[in-house]
Amino acid sequence: MTLVFLGGEVPSHRGLLVNNGVKAVGINYWALKRRGLPKTKDYLLSERYDPDIQIFVDSGSLTSLKSNLSRMELEAYCEEYQDWVSLNEERIAGATEFRHPHLADDWIQNQREEFWAYTIPGVFWPIWEPDQGPMELVNLAKNYENIAIPGSAIETELTLSARIRALKTQFDFDLHGMACAKPDNLRQVPFTTASTLSWLSPMMRGETIVWDGMKLVRYPKSMKAQARPRYKRIIENAGLDFGKIMNDDPNEVTRLTIWSYLQLEKSLDKNRPLLSDNSDDRDDPGNAETGGLVPVNSDPEVRKELTPREPSERATLPVLGVTNNLVVEKDETGRDVLRNAPMLSSTAQSLRQCDTCFVAATCPAFKVQSACAFNLPVEVKTKDQLRALLNSIIEMQAQRVAFARYSEELNGGYPDPNTGQEIDRLFKVVEQLKKLESNNEFVRMTLERQTSGGILSNLFGDRASVLKELPNDGLSEDQVTGIIVDQIED
Predict the structure, then answer these.
(1) Does residue 485 or residue 26 have the better pLDDT?
(2) Is the pTM of this model over 0.85?
(3) What is the span of the domain harbouring residue 408?
(4) pLDDT in the model for residue 385
(5) Which residue, 55, 336, 457, 477, has most beta carbons within 10 Å?
C-alpha cells in the first residue's frame, strides 16, 4: 500500500516531501491552476520531479471547484485538465477523471470513451460515489483497472469494505482512496494507494501527529505541550530535533509528521519483498560492503572481564517475587534441621513508565515521568483461585467473541475468520474449566491373551464352557424338525 502526500503543487511543500524521503506525491490541478500556470511555456512535471518520484493527479472537481459554476465553465475546465494530463502523461502514475454533480452521467461516460480510453493503461482512475449505487461499482470493477473512491464514502457506506473484498475475488482491479488516510480505514479497505493532506495539519493548525512504534496517534493543538514530551525518545531516534519540535518549529514538526506517515505506510505494506537477492552475481558484492578497502577477517577481540558486583548491589529480578518457607531437611549426621527455602511467586510490582508505555496515548492515568498507576495482583494457588481465573478469562473471551460478531455484522455480515478463531479459543477455555470441575471416578482394564481357550476360559476356568451350552440339554431332533417345517409353511 502506497501513501500519496497531497500538496505537491506548492513548491515549498514539494521540497519538504522530496527531501524527507517521500516517493509518492499528489497534485491538485485546480489548486495548481489557481496558483497560476506559466503563460509562456508548458508546466512539465518532468522538469520539477526526479524520475523516481511517483506523481498522482486529482482534477479537484469534487473537492475544490465551486458549486455555482455553469455547465459551460465546467466543460471548459475539464478540457484544460485533460490537455494538461496529455502533456504530462508519461510522468503521471494515476489521474482521476473530471466528475461534478452538475454534469450528467452520460456526459462523463462520453468523456471516458473519447479521451480516457486513449491514455496510457493504468493512468485513468474513474471515480465511484455512493449515490451511483452498488451496481455501478460492479461495472467499474469489471471494465477498468483502477477505481478511485472518496474518503467520505468509506465513512458513510458501512458495508463498502465487505463489498470491495468480494469484488476483488472476481475482478482484477486496484482501489485508490481519495483524501483517506485514517489508519482504521486503511486496514479495513484493501487500498492500493491512499492520498492525504493531513501531513500539513501540524504546520497549519498546530496539531501533533506521531508514530509511537505501533500506531499513528494524533493530538489537537491544545494538547501539544502535554503530548510531545511523551515521544521524546522516538523523536530523537528518528533523527529529529526535539527542542525545535517543542518550540513549534513548523518545518521540524512537519518532518516528524512525514516520518510518522512513512512508518504507517511500512506497517501497512504486507507485500514487501523479502531481504533476499536471486540475481546471478549475488555472491560477488564487489566493493558494496567494504568500500574498496581490504576486509579484515581476524578474530574479534575477546570481551573484557566484567567487574563483579558487591553483594549489597544485587537484587532479585523485579518481575518475580520470592518468599521464604521453613522446611525440614536432614543434615550430614541424619538429624532434622529447619532451613529457609526460597519459593518463587508472581509480583504485582510493575516497571512500566508512562513516558514509554505503548498505551500512553489513551491511558486515563497517564502522568509525565511517573511509574505505572496500576498493579496486577494475580494469585493462583488453590483450586478455587484457578476456577475463578478461568471464569474471568471465559467472560473476557465471550465479550471478544460478541464484539467480533458485532464488527462482522457492521461489515455486511461477511464471514470474518478472526471471529471463528475467537470462538475456538472460547471453547478451549471452557473445556479446561470442565476438566477442572469433573469429579468422575472410573477403573479402566485392558485384558489380552492369545490362547486357544479364549479370554473367558482363562478368567473363569471350566465354568466358561457351560456358558456356551443351551439350557435343558438343548433341542431334540423332533423339535428342530418342527421348527424348520413351521418356517417353511410361513
Answers:
(1) 26
(2) no
(3) 383-437
(4) 85
(5) 55
Is 240 or 342 the better-scoring residue by pLDDT? 240
Q: Is residue 412 part of a domain?
A: yes
Q: Which residue has the cell 520531479?
A: 49
CB atoms within 10 A of CB 365: 9
Pinpoint the alpha helices (H) of 269-300.
none
Least Cα distance to 99 among 128, 124, 73 occurs for 128
Number of domains the chain contains: 4
Question: Which pLDDT value is given to residue 274?
Answer: 36
The model's pLDDT over 117-153, given as tens digits with 9 standing for 90+, comes to 888 888 999 999 888 888 899 999 999 999 999 888 8
List the grid coordinates of 181. 488516510
Kindly state whether residues 427 and 372 are assigned to the same domain. no
Mean of the per-residue pLDDT values for the chain? 80
338 near 354, Cβ under 8 Å? no
Q: How far is CA 263 from CA 8, 41, 81, 137, 378, in A?
A: 20, 39, 33, 31, 37
Count Cα atoms within 13 angstroms, Cβ side, for 81: 28
Nearest to 372 by CA among 358, 388, 392, 385: 358
Q: Does one domain contain both 73 and 172?
A: yes
Could you tell me where the DSSP H helices lie in 126-172?
A: 134-143, 151-156, 160-168
Domain annotation covers residue 186: yes
